Amino acid sequence: MAPPPQESAQAQAAERAADLAAAAGQARASWESHDRPHRMAILRPTSVDLVVDGQLLSREPFFGRADVMDLDRYLPSSWLTVAGTTATLNAAVVLTPGALLDSGGDVRTLRLVGGATQPDAASLYTGGGRLILRGITVTSADPRSQAALPPSAAGRPVIVVSSNGRLESTDVTISDLGTLPAGADDGQAGVLFNPNSSGFLTRTTLTRNSIGLELSQSLNVRLQDVTASDSAEDGIVLRGDRGTTMSGIRATGNAGSGVDVTGVNSNRPITGVSTTGNGDYGVAVDKQNGARINGITTAADQSGGLRISQSADTNVTDFTATDEPIGVFTNVNSTGTVIDRMHTTGGLRGMVIEKTTHGLEVRESTFTGTRVAGIAVGGHQVQLDGVQINDCRTGVRVERGASDVAVTGIVVNRGHDGIVMAEGTSGVVVTDMSVNDVVSDGVRTFSPNTRITGGRIVGGSTGIDVAAATSISGTSIESTQGIAARPTGSVHADRVSIDAEDVGVNASTGSSVVLSNSRVHALEAIRGVVGQQGVNDLSLPPLNLLGAIGVPVILLAIALELVHAIRQRRVTGFRPRYRPGPPTGRPQSQGGAHRARRQDPQRTRVASGSVPMTATAGTAGVVTLNDTDRRDLS
User: Fold this and answer.
1) DSSP of 176-225, one letter per residue?
2) pTM for the structure as a whole
């Protein structure tokens, strides 16, 4: 039996009231979870909810899919206006699972109105839905001036991709969004992917945002040809994201780092990034385990190219830095770092290994033109293998506190010093080095128990300058001075080969030097007290070196004699030449004249018309004219 009409109407009214109450509760819950905006539109698969300050204003039927032009039919005119190709949105929009909003249509600029407080912001939230941006510029707008809001505005809008939501951005510019930290508020990125959100950004530019883009535990986001520039903080933040793929990433002119990698460990590689002119580091990696960094290029960032901090087992490959204060900086207990095929040009220091770094290896890398040092080592268990350093003031500096540093196969070309070990270091081993044409010292060590094995030093004022206990074996040196031992130095040189222009081994008073089974060729092979063991070859430098030294001296002597001869001719030019009178007594026979000449050991007459000369003992190839010869020249 059917209920009476009056009872049926009452039941329907009660059901509608229950539905409305449920809808109001859902709307308020959504409002509270989205920063409580003054105006909010919730797009559902079957309806649109309009919410004002947490109260459900209306629920209208909706087909679950719309572009910005279509949305204009569902929202009040004060919430959304479209003028030509520009749309101005003055309400937050939240998508629910199954709903889709597409920028589409003829709209080319979408302005999101904000203000002084967070509830003023007309932000976009994907919720569990899908937001598609194509060929459009999305920016903020002041409600009065319509100009873009400054970073200091607490009510700047944001784009948030929520859990299970999706953002797809192609050929888009997103600017002037996001908020800065203030008090207990951490601020928000211009574009934020939350945990388990996904999507892609392709050919997308993010400019003048707080943080350009943040991936916070997102899933499988694809970034391709993305530019983050002029952010008030970092350009891009990767915070525990998973499955991210990256290519063609550019970070320029951001106030913080270009790319900041932090948060929960992730197995995604950090790759395809280029940075320029950021206020901190080009790329900063913090508290990561097993990070893989590949194909990064940085230039002219204010703090440096790459910073690795509080991280373990980091692997860096094909990293390039140009004109950076520090190409790579490792610090705060970073361990197990491997850097392969790194290249730096210009700047102050190619690489700085801070004192808390443990276990770092640099392989097959090149450092060129740094103004302070190619590599500064302050850490422990550090290996430099196959490194080449060109035109840096100092090739390698081992700083105070460093220990267990192994330098193998290094090549240092030009610069002021090759390898310098400071006081307070220990366990430094240099093997098979090649130092060429530095200005000062090939190697200078204040580090106790330094070991130098093999290798070659060519050029410089001193090959190896020793101020602490050092062993040298199998090393070849061609310098102005071969080995110099300071008063605090103790040297054992075995099987060394030295060709020096000045001093081969210079042992200062108070030093202890032992030379064994070595070859030292120099103008002064040994200066000071040097102990010898085995068979040592101590002699003058080779003929070609003597020639290089002696020829200028000989030429100078000849020139001085010629000048003197010319001056004598001028002085005696008008003096009557002495002519002997008629011979008296018995004429001397021709044979007697020859005998007289043979009996004069200080004078040898050459062919008629030539200048008589006398060779003075003790000179090497220097010809001196005696007084009689000078008179004959006149």
Assistant:
1) S--B--BTTB--B-SEEEPTT-EEEEEEEEEES-SSSEEEES-BSEEEEE
2) 0.83
